[in-house]
Please model this.
Amino acid sequence: MRFMVIETFLPGCREQVYARFGEKGRMLPDGLRFVERWLEKDGDRCVQLMETDRPELFAVWTENWKDIISFEIIPVES
Model:
């Protein structure tokens, strides 16, 4: 299954997002696969295409980021 993930960096958290990513990477659990991403011009929002057969893994992944990013996770078809 494919999912479009819209990440919105919480106000004033952009630098924290990039610092954490640089230090720890995406922190994806096994079974949740990153496909591609697009970054909004102003840098405060990112759109990612991801794949998984276990949508419950999104809760594991977003737990690592919820203090600095809000998420919208949308099932999509290609």
Observations:
- The CA atoms of residues 18 and 77 lie 29 Å apart.
